[in-house]
Amino acid sequence: MALVAEYRTPARPNYRLVEVYDADAYLTDSAAIDLARQQVVGENGYHLYLSSLQPDVTVEVAIRIWDTPRKPPADVEGTLPVSIESETGILVVGQLTLGPAGEMTLPRPGVYEGHVSWTGRTATAEYYAETLRRIDTDWTTERIGEAWTQNPVPEQYILDLWFVRESEPDDEDDE
After folding, report:
1. Which terminus of the chain is less hemmed in, N or C, by CB atoms within 10 Å?
2. 21 phi and psi, to 5 degrees?
3. Tens of pLDDT along 36-94?
4. What is the tens place of the pLDDT at every residue in 111-125?
5. How many helices (H) and strands (E) does the chain have?
6. 171: CB partners within 8 A, 6+ apart
7. Taken in order 94, 73, 7, 105, is the CA torsion positive or negative?
8. Is 37 strand, coil or helix?
């Protein structure tokens, strides 16, 4: 089982969410967001939402493409199966209202299956809450921003994906 491609980017969980989506699937899906808020990850086939417990401390999103299916890692806080279709072959990591954090060109367009795992989610939320309690009127926005970069246990989301099939042609394309 070989790693085919890997991409990592920092992203701010604006509104406590980070999204991963096909470059042409940028419309918000409230049902998938609600699902993410309930179980950490929500999806609709073209769009994944990753739900953080805090809105300000930067998280890392890693997308790894494998040549064959692999088992979810055991040493994580949680993991869920996912499927994402990318007709463009480009996945965007988005920060909701803050815009894209980055993008990854996939080895080929199509449907990818796999799982999302996460670590540091709870520890980062605890650090965030503790930092908020320490902030007083003497703190500048620069000092607060510096505090967010001092998180001792980084929050990370890893998408382990593998190609399963070509995308189905759109009915709209036939017209």
Report:
1. C
2. -150, 160
3. 999 999 999 899 999 999 999 999 999 999 999 999 999 999 999 999 999 999 999 99
4. 999 999 999 999 999
5. 3, 10
6. none
7. negative
8. helix
